[in-house]
Amino acid sequence: MEQNKTQYVLGLLRLIMGWIFLWAFVDKVFGLGFATKSEGAWLTGGSPTSGFLKFGVHGPFASFYQSLAGVPLVDWLFMLGLLFIGVTFISGIFMRLGGFTGILMLFLMYTAIGISPTNNPFIDDHIVYILVMIILVLTNSGQFLGLGKWWANTSFVQKYKFSQ
Fold it and tell me: For residue 117, what pLDDT is reported?
């Protein structure tokens, strides 16, 4: 009974993490006015990375990240990453690859803000999200409230375990 509750909580946590990334993608594509104003929408020619990389980075890697602002390849990689992470976490399919992609993206964001937490002197939300993603991948959370159980039994996953 307790394991059942834990599985539902892990499945719900996975869905929430997926929605965070998918929502960031949708908002940046259409400029819905939350984090991205309509004039900054990717569909209208805005750069989804420009604002953050020009004005939001600090610390020892700031000049490197600022040089990437508005670069089309960086915009595409960022947006495809957001979409991929969101879809994998919501569906429960390709959780390992989606989790690794999310951890990498969050780590890069963490180094971009200067490796110094802005709201807490000890920890940053990027680190918390990385730990959550590690837990979700290690516990096979895609099998709870998702398609991961079905996906794990496909011949593709049986042959290529990395795709789980």
Answer: 67
